[in-house]
Amino acid sequence: MTRSIFIGGTGSHAGKSWMATAVCRWLKRRGVRVAPFKAQNMSLNSYPCREGGEIGRAQAVQAEACGLEPSADMNPILLKPNADTASQVVVNGKVWRDLAAREYYAHFPFLLEQALEAFRRLEAEHEVVVMEGAGSVAEINFRDVDLVNLGLARRVGAKALLVADIDRGGVFASVVGTFQVLEREEREVLRAFAINRFRGDAALFDGGVRTLEQRTGRRCLGVFPYLDGVRIDEEDSVALETMPAPAGYGGDVAIVKFPLMSNFTDFQLLPGARWITRPAPRRFRTVILPGSKNTLSDLRWMRLRGLDGWVMEQHEQGAQVVGICGGYQMMGERVADGAREAKGLGLLPARTEMLPVKTTRVVRARTASGHDFRAYEIHMGVTVVEGAHEPFAYVEGAGEGIRHGRCVGTYLHGALEDTVVLGELVGEAAPRAADREASYDRLADWFEHHADTALFEELFL
């Protein structure tokens, strides 16, 4: 019989993805056939599946930790915001439709059935399914249309672990308050809680654990320390707010932080890069325009802030400008999306037309120097480059992207996650990338050393 473990949080960015990834890897090392699942994800960080379609990057990471290929069943509903109150809705890996926030829940019965069918397919093939929640499990205003938290956990008979982040403060109120606002049948799903990101001597929190256990009537699975030196791909840009101040590699690099920026994981090897939201009074060696969920909207945002002129000025003063996906589209002469059209930056002799069908694929690419690297594409536009040009790379023997003077454009997400490619672009040896498998093992060790694993087996397995 398949068991399902739900991991929810007291709030956003409490460490649900970390805990789910750690549990996935820990179970895999014990020989358990385990798969990740998040019914509904809101993220502009996505990853293509080999069978087609896309899912949230966090579930792709968890699949990797389980030793599995990412599958659309692991994240059947993906919301990709393209405005403050509207999102592109991806169902079973494919674009379904664009919906305003208030329209979305009118489709609750259909979306719920899609989520349950995907869960059942995973359940049929694995011994354990590790489910991740979204935001807080106590979003009581969405109780009647809950697709991803305790409402779904109850429907599939999952046992739930509540994760709280002590590093942000207010851990007593967040844990006890969560239990207080839940209905009795929702509280019954929660079997234990975990305290995450503790700094210092955990023994000093023994009294706090006892207080929380008394107030909630639940056991504490463990007090988990802040784990430094391990990074996994995050699902949203909230993670950028918790990154350390700029330092280290990439100090001469500026990255324009679009409101609808997608796949910021492209830049995890550039911890020292400066994130730009307005013109900065200094010169950079490289300026990067990242991916965007809505190229025309973010291009308009750049112009309203004067960043288009700033990028051009940086280029005139000797900076290299690199555009990835939406950023690549902006660097051309024009971008057309149906009846809408906008003038680009004019840095590349290229024109882009948006199409209704999205390209999602994982590729092997090769640089002009002969270096092979892994990358992926997720975009809805087709860019045509005018005249002869040097490609950025080669995919299946065909040129991809463009190198034009001090300008580079490409659709290949993940290219800058390769240290050789990154080093070639920024002109110096890039730092060695973290070993992903070693990171997953460190997370499993972190879980094993700080969790009451006997209690975990008793309550969840």
Fold and architecture overview:
There is one protein chain. The model is unreliable at 241-246 (pLDDT under 50). A six-stranded parallel β-sheet has the order 2-9-1-10-11-12, sandwiched between helices. Helix 1 packs across helix 14 (436-450) and helix 6 (171-181) runs parallel beside helix 8. The longest helix is centred in the N-terminal third of the chain and has 18 residues, at 108-125. It has 15 helices and 26 strands. The protein is an alpha/beta fold. It folds into two domains: 3-233 and 438-460, P-loop containing nucleotide triphosphate hydrolases (Rossmann fold, 3-Layer(aba) Sandwich); 250-430, Class I glutamine amidotransferase (GATase) domain (Rossmann fold), CATH 3.40.50.
Keywords:
single chain; about 450 residues; alpha/beta; Rossmann fold; 6-stranded mixed sheet; globular
CATH topology of the largest domain: Rossmann fold
What is the mean pLDDT?
A: 93
Strand arrangement across the biggest beta sheet: 2-9-1-10-11-12
Task: Report how far the terminal alpha carbons are from each other.
Answer: 11 Å
Strand content: 25-35%
Query: What is the count of helical runs?
Result: 15
The largest pleated sheet is described as: 6 strands, parallel
> Can you say what the CATH homologous superfamily of the largest domain is?
P-loop containing nucleotide triphosphate hydrolases
Which regions are unreliable across 5 or more consecutive residues at pLDDT < 50? Answer: 241-246
Helix content: 25-40%
Total strands: 26
